[in-house]
Amino acid sequence: MKDKPQTESVETAARPLAPKSSIILKINDTEHKLEVAPWTSVLDLLREYLHMTGTKKGCDHGQCGACTVLVDGTRVNSCLTLAVMKDGSEITTIEGLAKDGELHPMQQAFIDNDAFQCGYCTPGQICSAVGLLQEGKAKSIDDIRDLMSGNICRCGAYNNILAAIQQVKGGVQNA
Amino acid sequence: MNTNYIGKGTSRVDGREKVTGQAKYAAEFTAEGMTHAFVVSSRIAKGKIKSIDASAALELEGVLDVFTHKNRPKLAWYDKSYQDEDSPPGSPFRPLYDSEIQFSMQPIALVVAETFELARYGASLVQVEYEEESHTTNLKANREKAYNPKKYKSGEPPKSRGNMEEAFAGAAAKVDQEYFHTSEHHNPMEMHASTVVWEDDGTMTIYDKTQSVKNSQNYIKKIFDLSTKDARVISPFVGGAFGSGLRPQYQLFLAVMAALALERSVKLVLTRQQMFSFGHRPATIQHLQLGASKDGNLLAAKHEAFAETSRFEDYAENVVVWQNTLYKCDNVAFDYKLVGLDVYTPLDMRAPGGVTGMYALESAMDELAVAAGIDPVELRLKNYTEKDQNEDAPFTSKELKECYRQAAEKFGWEKRNPEPRSMRDGHKLVGWGMASAAWEATQQEASAKAQLTADGKLIVSSATADIGTGTYTVMTQLAAETLGLPLEDVTFKLGDSTLPYAPLEGGSWTVSSVGSAVKKVCDAIGERLLKFSRKLPGSPFALAGLEEVKFENGMMKLKSDPSKGFYIKDIMQQRELDVIEEEVTSKPASEQKNYAPYAHAAVFVEVKVDEDFGTITVSRVVSGVAAGRVINTKTSRSQILGGIVWGIGMALEEESFMDNTFGRFMNHNLAEYHVPVNADVHDIEVIFVEEHDEIVNPIGAKGLGEIGIVGVAAAIANAVYHATGKRVRDLPITLDKVM
Ligand code: FES
Ligand code: FES
User: Fold this and answer.
1) A86 and A146, same domain (yes or no)
2) What pLDDT, on the 0 to 100 scale, is given for residue B1?
3) Least confident interval from B1-5, B127-131, B155-159, B595-599
4) Residue among B19, B24, B635 whose CB faces A103 most closely
5) Is the CB of A63 less than 8 angstroms away from the CB of B240?
6) Which of B94, B499, B571, B601 is deepest in the core (most CB within 10 A)?
């Protein structure tokens, strides 16, 4: 069952500043018709206007990866992505990975391997890891480490994050 | 069903919420009519605000107000009102109090608007004119102005003993060196935030990023003259803190101030740049003198430190106490001085003082081993102490020898060639280094409440925090095992100022303090159950005392005959009880005063240094940890792993770069303030050495949040020396320093 698209009035900054644009975004399988100001990032749109706070803000400058979401299947930093630029895109956030209450294998692997502590970088790490496996570029442990280095974990859960990704990916050897 | 949970690798009870994005952090709560605030930060480090012109911001439709020192509401007058549970001696910073600028990036105005973007834009329009005064931010250049504070935040430096100068003069092997590390910033991934929800009855529900909801609540109560009911503080999830949430930060003050003035809900999130504007690990210069006999017996030791503090508070940490904790020596001298600079007051950051002092001490011990021609492990074993010489007291327990032994064996230390530059892997120089570590394992007073309901479900609560440390999980395990209930029937609540008192979530004392309260309150529930069950028909417990029963698999049983017992649910139902409730306070036993409580570790590190480029990789770490009873093998390991990653950061990457011309930390962002990323971390092995401790607290567990980081920087520095033959005494060890 898909929700019908509905128009949501998104209160971004009123008036003279710049006019809002109408865009359509499909977020976690639900279509949203949105009126957004040009300065609203996908991250702020999600967190402040749609109240989907699973996606995190850790720097707002593309330096930490906490805001990683999948846009048309590709991982991106949503803080560096203006919502108006993504008209017509499909976005998957951490809230959209579990289906019918069943966790995505990557989410389960993160729990099993204790791949987080405070949990704040976690949604970004998981979306990034899902994107990584879809890219199919990671052949070795070093590849995984390199290609996951855009996601900072200040709690230092890196080895457990690696183990979680390996659990889902299955047999990776170091080169 | 098996309800023995302690010592198992239970997955985090809050794991599902965290991996699905349902765990809510301070900035993620909202309410009807929420407004957004943005801070304007001072450009200068010292001087006065001549004028602030907010008119351009106020002209924007949707900007509600701009607060400055000119129009702020009335505030408390005395320093005492601004002091919190973690304040050092002095006069705490007061946001928007007057025109005085005391440090760079001081908050000087707050723009409140209908949306976040608008508040941010409004802040960029606020015009400020300053009257600049010359500032001083250079620790090294101002060392001669160092002073001994009237009062030390964390105890005075230990007393000198014997005659250090004479013993040093006569020593066969000597080290006399200085070590330095720069300022560092906590940088938890979640930025500090407070969301104040203005309720219909004029009270406030405040979601704050903090390591103590009670500390936050008391702070704003005192400043804004509020009652406990006026301001409830909630903090269910904290996106890391590492000490940054020990003191209430200025976003809490500003958000509450704006909410009170506007009578509206206000959300304020600091920017990553502003995360460098409050509290940091202080840059510290340390002077070490160690003297030993030919065969490596320590004859003389001197440890002096010079650390930065602000002009308004005397922040000090336990930097020079570790010699006394780790090594036997009769001729010792210590001093610890502060240098006042125009910066914000430093702030406890993961193992404050421990990582600092132990970095210098354990580097010097390595140099002494070289000078005496003795293996570094052997030197430490030779000077091993069974007594903490700070207090002249035995340890509650100390299995450090086992840490050395097991970690060295796992690492393969006996294959080490002591000669620097003797080991290679292609064009990389390989180095092996080690260091010891110790960290306090104290217990504080804490309270907890428990409610057992007729359906056999238990809720235990205390106003503590889980900053990623696993508090939710280990408290649930402790409660479930104490009352023999399945994990899923037990809920632990924290992070709410209406709950019973808990100390600051820091100092590695949460398991020890709150855990003891949780155990005690569950014992109290158990005792009530026993009383209720005595009168049940056919009760096997008629004459039994609490020590004669055990709780297991949902039942209360006789220890002497476990086939006899009742299901807890049945006791509740047969006695027609809806709920049993208990609240207790647990205090450290007086016996503890006669002992020194410490966790210990031995860290072994392998580095590979590229001979041409000087890049350093920490290829292998083995850490042997002795920390009493391990409650959760999975989360405990994670705590130590995290500490080691922090140690890698401290040794090789982290540096808050002070530009003395501007008096500002220039690299105030995550692109230029380097913390370890996944590619910087390689093999790490954690060994928990068996350690029994009946004295340290009723649980027998020592905290693990800090011991993991303590020795790492020294072990890495020692390994870099072994790899390259170059002794870098200045952290972080960046490639320019080894080339
Ligand atoms: S918040 Fe987007 S990269 Fe940090
Ligand atoms: S789990 Fe805390 S930052 Fe990664």
Assistant:
1) no
2) 63
3) B1-5
4) B19
5) no
6) B601
Residues B733 and B640 in one domain: yes
User: Which structural domain, as residue segments, surrounds residue B50?
Assistant: 26-134+188-271
Identify which of B474, B460, B473, B469 has the alpha carbon closest to the alpha carbon of residue B505: B469
- Mean pLDDT for B254-278 is 98
Q: Indicate whether residue A108 lines ligand 2 (CB < 6 A).
A: no
Q: Is the pLDDT of residue A4 over 90?
A: no
Nearest to B416 by CA among B705, B712, B715, B193: B715
Nearest ligand (C-alpha, residue B641): 2
The model's pTM is 0.96
Q: Which atom of ligand 2 is nearest to the CA of A117?
A: 1
Residues B636 and B657 reside in one and the same domain: yes
On chain A, the residues whose CB falls within 8 A of the CB of B22 are 54
CATH number at B662 reads 3.30.365.10
Is B385 inside a domain boundary?
A: yes
Residues of chain A with C-beta less than 8 angstroms from the C-beta of B188 = 118, 120, 154
- The answer to whether residues B255 and B296 belong to one domain is no
- Partner-chain contact B20 A107, CB within 8 Å: yes
Tokens at residue B644, please? 């080691």
Using one digit for the tens of pLDDT, what is the confidence trace for B204-230?
A: 999 999 999 999 999 999 999 999 999
Q: How many CB pairs under 8 A join A and B?
A: 198
Q: Is residue A31 part of a domain?
A: yes
Nearest Cα to B218, choosing from B259, B264, B256?
B256
Q: Decide if A7 is inside a domain.
A: no
Of B17, B114, B189, the CB nearest to A64: B189
Helix and strand numbers, DSSP H then E, in chain A = 5, 6
Cβ(A120)–Cβ(B244) below 8 Å: no
Q: What is the pLDDT of residues B451-484, one digit of tens each?
A: 999 999 999 999 999 999 999 999 999 999 999 9
Q: Which ligand has an atom closest to residue A61 CA? A: 1
Residue A12 has pLDDT above 70, yes or no: no
Query: B239 with A118: CB under 8 angstroms?
Result: yes
Report which of B535, B596, B35, B23 is spatially closest to residue B262, judged by C-alpha positions. B35
Residue ranges making up the domain that contains A78: 21-96
For ligand 1, is residue A64 a contact (CB within 6 Å)? yes
- Neighbour-count burial of A51, counting CB atoms closer than 10 A to its CB (0-12 exposed, 13-18 middle, 19+ buried): exposed
At A40 the three-state DSSP class reads coil
Q: What is the pLDDT of residues B294-342, one digit of tens each?
A: 999 999 999 999 999 999 999 999 999 999 999 999 999 999 999 999 9
B320 part of a folded domain:
yes
Q: Is the CB of A66 under 6 A from ligand 1?
A: yes
Q: pLDDT grade, residue B635 (50/70/90)?
A: very high
Q: What three-state secondary structure class fits A46?
A: helix
Q: What is the Cα–Cα distance from B167 to B165, expressed in whole angstroms?
A: 6
Residue in B closest to A37 by C-alpha: B117
**CA of A160 to nearest chain B CA: how many angstroms apart?**
8
- What's the order of all strands across the beta sheet hosting B565-567? B549-552, B555-558, B565-567
Residue B495 makes CB contacts below 8 A (sequence gap 6+) with B213, B234, B235, B236, B237, B238, B463, B464, B465, B466
One domain, residues B327 and B421 = yes
- Please check whether residues B236 and B254 belong to one and the same domain: yes
Distance CA B9, CA A160 (A): 14
pLDDT bucket at A6, cuts 50 / 70 / 90: low
Closest to A8 in 3D by CA, of A45, A60, A41, A43: A45
Print the SS3 string covering B65-78. Answer: EEECCCCCCCCCCC
A110 and A90 inside one domain: no
- ipTM of the complex model: 0.97
Q: B508 near B441, Cβ under 8 Å?
A: yes
Q: Is B266 left (phi over 0), alpha (psi -120 to 50) or beta?
A: beta
